[in-house]
């Protein structure tokens, strides 16, 4: 009887074949496979077949190789995806840069167009102002002609001419311009331009007040013709009639207003820095929120004037009539109030630090509540050192408490 294939080999060879087939160590598997013909020259040797079987199933399909292969494939796929995304991103970046360049070019074109429009607008505005100045010259010549022929005592003007003056004032709109005399003044913005001002309105006003027009007519002009934002810096307006005029937001810095009549004039938000108003009638005037820092108000008539929140630092208000005036919230630090009339004045929340109150009468002060002062014993100072009238009553009604930044505040007891 012919022997089977397995019977040709002894048991030891078969056991060795089983062991070779179960080998799973990659280095040993590779060596066994390389040396299979040398070690097992017989093609029918089960050990040779076991080595071939092991290299296929134990090496190429082992969990480690499969894991490594899977990781490699996953890594390759991930790398491909990242490369593809990067390529897309680079394309998008190029497109974005092109769009940005287009936008920048469009922006530059718009800026250039706006610049040309602005230049054109300024040229047109300059031409308009030149035409208005020419018109103002004609109007003022008509004023002179009519005043020569007037027969009444009021030196009045005709209604058509008054209407032309009103229209002229409306046309002389304020604008920003460079004024080198202001230097580092707060009246200039960050570009070195002034606040909205109209030098032409200032010229018109100066011409009117010096033309000899009667008071009744000039009051009519003030009522109907706007002079707000007028630039009157360094102007001489001594003894002029400015009753009930509206000069809000005007530039009156260093202006001369000695003995001027400003009865019930509106000077709100005007700049009166270093202005001289000594002996001027400001009675009933609205000077709230106005810059009067360093102004000369010596012996000025400020009866019933609204000076609330006005800046009066270092101003000279000596002997001025402030009776019934509203000085609430005003900054009077360093101001000279020697012998000023403070009858019925409201000083609530005013800044009185270093203010000189020599010789004033405090008997009829409306309020000094919330005033800022420079000393804890300020009330004692004005009572015992300055010996001011009415100070003893204030000591009974008020007390001084610590405020901020080393200052003190007056409060009711």
Account of the 3D structure:
- The chain is an all-alpha fold.
- The chain is 43% helix and 3% strand.
- It is built from 10 helices and 3 strands.
- The chain has helices spanning 11-22, 26-34, 36-39, 46-60, 63-149, 159-171, 199-209, 215-224, 378-385, 391-397; strands spanning 372-373, 398-402, 408-412.
- A 3-stranded antiparallel sheet has the order 1-3-2.
- A hairpin with a 5-residue loop joins strand 2 (398-402) and strand 3.
- Helix 2 (26-34) packs antiparallel against helix 4, helix 5 (63-149) runs antiparallel to helix 6 (159-171) and helix 9 (378-385) packs antiparallel against helix 10 (391-397).
- The longest helix has 87 residues, at 63-149.
- It is elongated and about 155 Å long.
- The protein starts with 10 loop residues before the first helix and ends with a strand.
- The mean pLDDT is 86.
Task: Throw out a few tags for this protein.
413 residues; mainly alpha; three-stranded antiparallel sheet; 10 helices; elongated
Topology, number of strands: 3
Topology order in helix (H) and strand (E) letters: HHHHHHHHEHHEE
Overall pLDDT score: 86
Radius of gyration: 49 Å
Helix content: 40-55%
Strand content: under 5%
What general outline do the C-alpha atoms trace? elongated
Q: Sheet with the most strands?
A: 3 strands, antiparallel
Structural class computed from helices and strand pairing: mainly alpha
Low-confidence stretches: none
Please give the alpha-carbon distance between the first and last residues.
136 Å
- The DSSP helix count reads 10
Q: In order across it, which strands form the biggest sheet? A: 1-3-2
